[in-house]
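Slack export, channel: ligand-projects

TW: morning all. Re-posting the request from yesterday since it got buried. We need the structure predicted with the small molecule present, not the apo form. The ligand is nicotinamide-adenine-dinucleotide; the SMILES is in the block with the sequence. No rush, but it would help planning for next week.
GE: picking it up
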Amino acid sequence: MKTIRIRDREERESTIVCRKNVFSAVLAPLGAQLPEGGGMLFTDANVYALYRAQIERSLGGVPCFVMPAGEANKNENTLFSLLKEMRKAELRRNSLLIALGGGVVGDLGGLAASLYMRGISCMQVPTTLLAQVDSSVGGKTAVDFCGVKNLIGAFSPAARVEVDPAFLQTLPRRELRCGLGEIVKHGALSAPLFEKLLSAPDLFDLSFLAQIVPENIAFKASVVRRDPHERDLRKCLNLGHTTAHALELGGCGLSHGECVLWGLILESRLAVRHCGGDKKFAERLSALCFSALEGGTLPPLDVENARLDKKNASSDRVTLAVPVAPERYELLELPFAQYAKELSEVAKEC
Ligand SMILES: NC(=O)c1ccc[n+]([C@@H]2O[C@H](COP(=O)([O-])OP(=O)(O)OC[C@H]3O[C@@H](n4cnc5c(N)ncnc54)[C@H](O)[C@@H]3O)[C@@H](O)[C@H]2O)c1
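GE: finished. pasting the full token output, ligand included:
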């Protein structure tokens, strides 16, 4: 068992516990003795179908709201449906919302908990690799709105996060790759993790992943602790993401994680051109990304899509957090036209 604590500027503490048997060790005792104000379980249809028996055994008497799975449902309609169910269940100021699922459930549940009666406690039980190493750490919650990803949200850390590697056993390989995108990004910013990833015989091996999940959480927590509201240092967590969003918003058919892996490959090459980036490091990082991608080709790039990213919406220039050397990144600012030209040049090298 490993415990990691994060305290933000408002002194709100989030305790993240990595352990096995979350249903019997945590949820069953909780179901038997909820806080005075009661509680509610929030999950999605896929997770509910896979874990129904364990949910019923541990949280049988607890009201439950099941959302349809998928990013398309991370919106105001599901948010308000959830808030209505919380009201029907007569949750009170001292109630607990348990969000069991991937990043979509965590982001929605966290936001609903922060809004209901101006804030009730939330426990996240992340069930995807991405949610375990990334979205459940750091207190960002949101829904997509008016076609813009994560437009409405709040910084509102879950009081408790329970991370159980057993959930990864049912996760499709493509969803594991989504988490690997963020893990490789963390590796570019943490030399010991980078070396571990490079020497892993199989990045998808579940016992290897179970071993490195706590290290990834600890890394992200160390960044969040120093910059809880994404003013400065936390921008390093956007490594590879601007180009990833340009790919993603173009409807290329790749998942977010696959786009992040391509984004890291392409942006490490831009770093060599513009920031004195270490060529050997760029090659090693690319090799790691290619093994997580397991082949596949880069789809055609239309960087105009980067303008749709809200972070670049108001400018003719684009700012990228690019990987320069082990544990080093730089913010690279380029005019859009130059970014487009150079990106297509480095893409041809892949
Ligand atoms: N808050 C943050 O800091 C932060 C950081 C990164 C990403 N995010 C958000 O996270 C979301 C993506 O998260 P995600 O990749 O977990 O997506 P997701 O929640 O949609 O889960 C991916 C798929 O896996 C299924 N699933 C979940 N757990 C499973 C399991 N154990 N076995 C089998 N299937 C399972 C889900 O039903 C879904 O179909 C995005 O909305 C993104 O914006 C938030």
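GE: first-pass observations. The longest helix spans residues 206-226. The mean pLDDT is 93.
TW: perfect, thank you
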